[in-house]
Automatic annotation (TrEMBL):
The keyword DNA-binding applies. One of its GO terms (biological process) is DNA recombination. GO terms for molecular function: DNA binding. The lineage of its organism: Bacteria, Pseudomonadati, Pseudomonadota, Alphaproteobacteria, Rhodospirillales. This is Site-specific integrase. It holds the Pfam family Phage_integrase. Residues 235-407 form the Tyr recombinase domain. Keywords: DNA integration, DNA recombination, DNA-binding. It comes from Azospirillum cavernae.
Length: 429
């Protein structure tokens, strides 16, 4: 007789959020002899599959992270239904007769895993170019020739720590030895390098998981034991004040100025603006259509009156298929053409070297939140599926707005006399 399983609902984030962390997974039966499990932890939970006919021959395998903190991507981060589907596939493969299994492949290296993953990422993700750059710079030089079967948690942890301990790569001419900045020695510099190590570890794990799911690696146990640095992705968000934004706009050359103005009035990414066509602007309802965003989902950005005026001017006389924003030479603002002009404009405006184009997106979001725009509305205009990222980066600004609004608008009754005694120290001091 199979051992009875205590059934737990696992199908929504809200339900899973109420579960208490525990070492053993919470289980839900999919079919006879097959269960989907959810291992609750302090951060994102993990999906586990279990199969067998009784307690003595149960087999378990972790199949991915849950989408508690990040949107499901169908690869490393899975929704409940994606986890159920992958559980069925995993068990179906495991139950195949031994004689039907393919012959073992040749020794499989980390380079092989990364190459196969990048080939897949080119057609399935929007960040393949950045993934390739990170892999070429930080994964393959150190780990590329290692056999996946020879990887150990200690080796991967030392590689992760090595990235965190070294300075960032500096722009270097081709054929010259790669230059790096000094090792991080301030809290913020250490945080940034650890954040870089985390992102690179995520790419490595994605490549190894891709290989494991395709049968090129026998087990995922090794890299599952290697954890990212904690508490390093909560940097203070830099944004511009109205006065700073005005200085920056005035410091830009004409073609860049239009792109910067558009970023400030939309909160859109550089790539989204570069891809906009005249037909994407709808003057009747003052919106601009972003056909393809980082998430892969289209959206409509609602414009203010000021934003609508900019787009009316920018689309006047253009054919529907004409790009809205172009460089002085008539070409689109593709790839990295904006970086140096942006740096020069920021320097002329005396705003500091940390002001990048992406800060314009933070500026729109930060000022919108501080002006009382609900977080869900901000998230929707930015193209986020929910408010989690907005709450993470801008939620504290909403709190300051709430405090300001209460102090200005909440009723004052005139029932408390002004103090006649001056305290020796301020309250809370």
């Amino acid at each position: 007789m199979p051992r009875p399983v205590s059934e737990t609902r696992l199908d929504t984030r809200a339900v899973r959020a109420k579960l208490k962390p525990q070492p053993k997974p919470y289980w839900r039966s999919i079919e006879t002899g097959l269960h989907i499990g959810y291992r609750k932890s302090a951060g994102a939970g993990a999906w586990v599959v279990r199969w067998g006919t009784n307690a003595s021959d149960y087999k378990t395998q972790t199949i991915g992270r849950s989408d508690d903190e990040h949107d499901a991507d169908g690869r490393g981060t899975l929704s409940y239904q994606q986890a159920v589907d992958l559980a069925r596939k995993t068990v179906a493969i495991a139950r195949r007769p031994a004689e039907a299994e393919p012959e073992p492949k040749a020794p499989f290296t980390v380079r092989d895993a990364v190459t196969e993953y990048l080939r897949w990422a080119d057609t399935h993700t929007k960040s393949a170019a950045d993934t390739r750059l990170r892999a070429d710079a930080l994964i393959l030089p150190m780990l590329g020739d290692k056999l996946c079967a020879d990887l150990t948690p200690r080796l991967l942890a030392e590689w992760r720590d090595g990235i965190a301990a070294t300075g960032r790569r500096l722009r270097t001419k081709i054929g010259v030895e790669q230059r790096t900045a000094a090792a991080p020695d301030t809290p913020d510099a250490i945080r940034r390098r650890r954040s870089t190590a985390n992102r690179t570890l995520t790419i490595l794990k994605a490549a190894l998981n891709h290989a494991w799911r395709h049968g090129d690696i026998a087990s995922d146990e090794t890299w599952r034991r290697v954890q990212p640095f904690e508490g390093v992705d909560h940097a203070r968000i830099r944004y511009l004040s109205i006065a700073e934004a005005t200085r920056l706009v005035n410091a830009c050359d004409f073609d860049l100025r239009l792109l910067v103005q558009a970023a400030l009035v939309t909160g859109a990414r550089r790539g989204e603006l570069a891809a906009m066509l005249a037909q994407d602007f709808n003057p009747d309802n003052s919106t601009v259509h972003i056909r393809e965003s980082k998430s892969g989902k289209p959206r409509h950005v609602v414009l203010t009156d000021e934003g609508a005026r900019l787009f009316v001017a920018m689309t006047a006389g253009k054919a529907p298929e004409d790009p809205i924003f172009t460089r002085a030479d008539g070409h689109r603002w593709d790839k990295a053409y904006h970086i140096r002009p942006m740096q020069e404009a920021a320097a002329r405006a005396k705003l500091g070297s940390e002001v990048t184009f992406h800060i314009l997106r933070h500026t729109w979001a930060s000022l919108a939140v501080m002006n009382g725009v609900p977080l869900m509305v901000v998230a929707d205009n930015l193209g986020h599926a929910d408010t989690r990222m907005v709450e993470k980066h801008y939620g504290h600004l909403a709190e300051s707005y709430k405090a300001k609004l209460i102090r200005e608008k909440a009723p004052t009754f005139g029932i408390v006399a002004a103090p006649t005694v001056t305290p020796l120290r301020k309250p809370g001091a």
